[in-house]
Every structure is written in structure tokens, then in C-alpha cells.
Amino acid sequence: MKKINIIFLFLIVATFSLGRPIRNYQQKSDRYLNYEFSRADSAHGFDVLTYDLTLEIDDVNESVTGAVITEVEAEETLTEITYELENMNVDQVLLDGTIANYTYDGSLITIQLGLMNPGELFTTSVEYSGNPIWDGLGMYFGGYHMFTISDPNASRYWWPCYDHPWDKAEVDLHITCREDWDVASNGILGSIVNNGNGTRTHNWNGENPMATYLVSLVTRDLTELNDNFGSIPIQNFVPPGMVANANEDFSNLPFMMETFTGLFGDYPFEKYGNAVTNFATYGAMEHQTMTTLGDYIITGNHTYETTIAHELAHQWFGDCLTCLTWKDIWLSEGFATYSEALYTEAWQGYEAMVNYIHNSIHTYYINWAGNTPYTIYDPPVNSYFTPATYEKPASVLHMLRLKVGDEIFFDILQTYFNDYHNGNVITSDFQETCEEVSSMDLEQFFQQWIYQPGLPALKYTYFFNPYTAIPRIMTYVETESNSDTDFFMQVPFHVNYETSHDSILVDAGPDPVQTISIITAPLYDSVEFDPNNWILSRGNTFSGAEINNAYAADEKVVIYWNEFWEEISVDGYNIFRSESPEGPFELINSELITETQYSDQEVVNGTTYYYRLKAIKDTNYETPYSNTYQATPIAFPFDQGILLVDETMDGAGTQGNPDDVMVDEFYQNVIPTSFTSYDYNQEGAPTIDLVRHYSTIIWHDDYLAEHFISDNIDLLGSYLASGGNLIISGWKTVPEIPNYFLNDLLECGEHQLVSQWEFVGATSEQYQNLHLDPEKLNPAFDGTLPYVSIFPNAINGIYEFDGTVGSSYIGENVALKNELEGKFFLLGFPLYFFQNDDVEQFFIQFLEEIGEVSAGNEIVESKSNLFQNYPNPF
């Protein structure tokens, strides 16, 4: 079945499921342990051999009158047999031609058999009538047409049968309807008899066993279009106005059948065809030998070519090989969905198949599932027909193809098809076939992909050894699951050269797995991870040597990078420099660097330099070059004292929302020395030419919204690298600062924004305690300040969180300090909202520490010849 309009499909399947019990389903908690015993679900003591269904359709009254003769073989001693039939009238029941005793409760017909011994054959006949209930499934009357759809377990809505997929039988149908209507159905059309009363009877004869949910009718004014694939007739029925488009859209059917015959084995049935109508429930349904297609699929330009291929593929997988229970529905829908890609490969070529896998299967599933872990095997009853049973298992089949190779993969499909021809299958049947044909132990593969939930994300890196006679690549790949499932797999890499490439398979697991592979040459153009989209994952992340920033300072450039992948130890790092972005890049460190920063002091102010990084492992293995960073060192005279950068946006002038005047007056009162003021709101971002003259910058942002600190990170990094002193305070400011900046310059690996109304002040053993000023706070905050940043596990804290009674954040770091060339203070709160006296005392301590004022609060003379006072002189 082709999933179309999936939200609508959820609704109808859910409605259907609520109306009847689903029997013999194991609880989810034990399904992984007991899946091999699921054949017990089909134990019922008898085998239905044939159904002979006679049905008269009254389209005016939307009713049916019919009789079903069923031939049955007892497999154990029987005293009764039960068929399903929903909300009809049972008029008479016969056993071997004689009137039988029975009960009917509106859902189940139970027929008394007397005593039937194992091996005995008997026939039952049920005569019935009524108006079939349409519940999104069953028999649909639409005025100008009628069709049936019985997937799953809904044949009982329009004819009495043992309505379970595990008991397949040959079916003959004798359908009487108005004489201007045609009937498209299963099997071979034997005859059409005109009854002389305005009706005709259409006799369709089946030659192969069929699950009840695959029995179907489409009745309306139809035009028959005929073709063939070898000796197999192709019989399509379409509305008269769609003949031209249908001829075009069905023109590739023989090629499709040839493709799947070559891949899977001989076409299994007596004919194939499509019945086109206004199919209200699904986009299409793979009724055995006669698929039902929604009329919108017929466009005349092959728009839905893969849908037509999908339903054809079901004739092999789903119809000939039918899942024993709905637990294994993926053996039908997953195989048909992957067949879309296989047909695309035959129709349009390998690259088209690769793109189809990526866009229409992998990505389709990921977009639907998000980060929710779904399991392929035994889906919930209202989720039989979702991407978890279509696209995800199609991706799994594609990965199985990678794992075993093309020749073995298609040998598996053909062996599986031949071994279970016209039978019922469960997942362990397919797994056993895979293992027998491939001679591989695939238990882990099936457990992680089929029986257990989740998907991996993949993280990888690689090193080259270009210095030996036989060049090698060392790879590491790690799988990170979104469930409790551990994923182990092999992943393809391509090492590309100018005119060729090496394709290698490497191992991956929950811990980074190392693989060393021999390659063709030490010089390569690029490396691609899974370039042909074999692997279904939530994302593939390359982890390499990567520069965070290169800060231009005074006659030096300070380069920072992250520690290499934590689980992979490296010997150290090499830094390369060039005066051109195109190179050549030359090694500038004389010894391997074991830290994650390097100060290049062999530079000239005003010259632009470009830097790249490599990580080194096991002496001779090295990563590819990192990203390139440029920096132009510049003089920092630090000759003009303190610069106060006011990033606060102008507020309403109320408590909790101060305007510029209120903020400016606060800082004028609490900073105990002269300073130069800079208003970010008026002047825009400060330039390097401005800040390099000031030995200390106080950067404050006392506004809850609109932050610009992230736009100034390079400038502030260069300022700190040159020896300037910096203090940053702000409201919700810390989350705006890039993590690499916090790691590089504060050794801060973690921060968290506390939005609760619990913060009442900051305590310190080194500096003045800070208490909130209720007169400045929004009254709604009840004396607290929300949106304060904490720094768990920081080793350089200077202030701790003081909170309301019971707060879980009391004692957490809320401010940090790091000793660089100068000093860097980061406060996770805005200073404006504290008591003036407390903040003034803090500034005295801060300015004494950095030498801007002397002990006793005497002003230190500015280095600047032009000493600017508050307010902003610019």
C-alpha cells in the first residue's frame, strides 16, 4: 500500500482499530524476547482452502446480497468454526449442503460442526445481506462508483470469512451489478453474463492463494486497457476520460515487471492490473493481481511512477509472501518502498537511485520521526502504515545491501521469495534466509534496526599517514543513539584523487571505533563520508582539528582551538601560517603543541596572517588542515584609562525597565574614578581603533532583550589577548556569548540561565556582597531577579548565587574571573539592579586590583593626554 495523505490515514486507521479487538498480540515489554514464537499467533486448528463469493450489488440502496461457500480442512479435532462478519444479516448457514446450527452476534458467526477430525474436508455456506458499514474501510458507495478496501482485517465489513492474514485461500468472485458498470477484481475474468434484467454478472477466478484483505472490487463505468509481460496478461481498468493519460502512465508496466522479475524472481500470479477510481482511503492498494489506484495518480506524465512500482512490487512482497501477522507488516511495506528505489535505479540510473534514497526515503523518515525513537517490528495498532513501517525498513534493506554486497543481497531476495512462495512470513524467516545466503551472523543487525527502537547519529574523524611507503588512513566513527539501542555498523568512506577514488568500509560503534585502511596515494583531493547515502542516521558530524579564533593582538596573534575528540587521544597539534589564503602554509611551532592555544609572536603589526591547524596522532598520522582563520596584529597603546560601554537599550523609565538617563546616573555614581562613556545604542559597535587605547573596558547590558555582545567577540578577544582588563555584566547576556569564547578565555565549559524568581543577591569571599535594590526591580519579581546565569563546575568563580529559601541554586557560581595578560571578569547578572553602595564598593575593589585606582580610592592619573569625562564625549 502506498501511503498518501498520511494524517488522514492515521485518523481512519485509528477509528477502525477502536471498533474491534486485535487478538494474540504480545505485550511490548516482551516482544524482543519472544518474537521467534510469533507463528503461534496463527494457530487456529483449520486451513481455509477456497472461498467462492457470490455477491449482488444494489448501488441505489447501497446494499448487498450474497453467499460465500468455503472449503476447509480440519488440522485438529474441531466442533465449531468462526467467521467474521460485521453488522449484516445472516439469512442461512449450511454445512456440507445441509442446514447448520450457528450463532451470530453482529461480529462473529460461529457454526456448529459436530465432530471434524484432523484431515477431514468440509464446506460451509453463509448466505447474508445488508448495508455494509463504511468506516474508512470496507465497501464504499459513491453514487457513480463502488470500491472496497480491506487493509487491515476489513473484509469482514462486506463478506463473511476467516479474516486474518495467516490463512490464505484461493478466491473466486461472481459479482452482479447494474449492466452499465464494469467490475475489476482479482484473478482472471472468466465471463460476463447479461442477466436480462438490467444487471450483469462478472465471474473472476483466482488461481493462487490470497489473504482476505487483498480481495477487492471496483465497479463503475470503466474502459479496459490490455498489455502483457511475456505470457502474463496486464489488464488495466480506467474511467473513460482517463484513457490517454493511463496509456502513458502504464506504458512502463512491462519494464517494471521485467525489472522486478530479474531482481526478485518470476512474477508470481496469473495476471496483473490496475483499477483506477476515486479512491477515498489510500493513495493506492496492492490488491492481489489488481491494484486499486486513486485517479489523481493518473496524470499522463509519470508523476507517480514510483507509486505504480511500489504497488507492483507488493505482488512479490505482501501478496505472494504475506506477513503472518501485522507485527511483521514491514516485510510488506518496507520491501515495496525499497522497490521504489530499485526501480528508479533501473529506470533512471544509479545516481537517481542514490538521490531517491536520500530525499524520498532517508530524509522523509527523519523529517517525520524527528528525534522520536520508533521500532519497525510490532508497531502499535494505529501505526501499521507510517514511515516507521515504510521508509525506515526500506533504509534498513538498503543498509543490508551495503553490508552483504549486491550479489548476495539479490540472491537473498530471490531465495527468500522462492522459499516462502505463496506463504506467510515472519521477520525471523527473512533473517534466517539472510544469514544462510550470506554466511554472516546478522543478529546484531536485526536487533538494532528491526526489533529495537531508535536511530544513531554518527560522529567521525580521520587521520592520514603520508610519510610511509604504503599510505594509510586511520578512521574513527562513533554512533550516538536516541534510545537504549546500541548501534554497530560499517560506514563507507571515499578518498578522492584527481581521477579516481578509494572506497573503504570502516567500523562504527557506541564508542569510537578505529579502522586503519591502506589507500592508493598519500596526496588526496577530499574525503567523503557515506557519499552515496547508504546509512540512515539522524546526522553525520565531522570532528576534526578546528580553530575557534585567532585574536589579533599587539605584535602577536593568539590562536585558540578546542581539545580534540575527548575519547581519542592525540599527541598534540601543529600550527601552520601563510600570508596568503591560498598558501603555501608553513609549520611555525618548533615542538608539538600539547595545549589548545598558541601565541604566535613572530609577526609584524599591520600584516594579515592566515592560520591552519592539524592534530597529530601516533607520530605520523595527521588530520587534514582545519578551517582557515586570519588575523592582522595591531598596536594597543592602552593610553586612555577606562572605557564604559553602555549596551543597554533605552527603556520605559519604570521599575525593572530603566531608561538611558537612569542607567547612566547609576554608573556615574558607582564608578569611583573618571571614565570615558560610549553609548552603543547611539554609536553602534565600537571599533578596534577605539578600544585599543583603553586599559580597562567596563561593558554593561542592563536590558532584558536585544543583545549585541556576540557581534563584538573578535574585538574583545583581541583586546584581552593584548593585555586589556575587561568586565562584562548583563541581563541574559551570557547565553549570547559563544561557548568557544567562554572556554578559551574563562575556562568555562558550562553555563545555565536561571529563569525562576529566586535570585536575591551575590555573595563572595573576595569582593563586596551584592544585594538587590527593591526600588529598581519590577514589583512583579517580588524582590528577586530572574534570568541570572550560573556557571556549574567552574573553577574560577568569584560570586555565588544567593536565593530564596529552598532555591536549588544557592551556592552556584554567578560570576567568574580569569587572569590573562590582564584580568577578565564576567558577571551573570546586570549590576544596575543592585544597591549603589554595594556596587560602588565592588568597583573600588576591582579598580584597585587592576591598578586603575590606588588603595584608599585615590584616582590614578590617566595615561591619556586627552582625558575624557562622563558623559559620552564622542
| Average pLDDT level | 91
What is the approximate shape? elongated
> What class, by secondary structure content?
alpha+beta
Note the total helix count.
17
Strand content: 25-35%
Which range best describes the helical content: under 10%, 10-25%, 25-40%, 40-55%, 55-70% or over 70%? 10-25%
Strand tally: 50
Describe the main β-sheet briefly: 9 strands, mixed
Indicate the radius of gyration in whole angstroms: 38 Å
Ends: how far apart?
A: 72 Å
Order of adjacent strands in the largest pleated sheet: 39-38-40-41-48-47-46-43-44
Uncertain regions spanning at least 5 consecutive residues: 4-38, 856-874
Walkthrough of the structure:
This protein is α+β, with helices and mostly antiparallel strands and 874 residues long. Helices cover 21% and strands 32% of the residues. It is built from 17 helices and 50 strands. The strands form 13 sheets. A nine-stranded mixed beta sheet has the order 39-38-40-41-48-47-46-43-44. An eight-stranded mixed beta sheet has the order 5-4-8-2-1-11-14-13, with no helix packed on it. Strand 23 and strand 24 form a beta hairpin. Helix 4 (253-264) crosses helix 5 and helix 6 (330-348) crosses helix 8. The longest helix is centred in the middle third of the chain and has 20 residues, at 350-369. It is elongated, with a radius of gyration of 38 Å. 45% of the residues are buried.
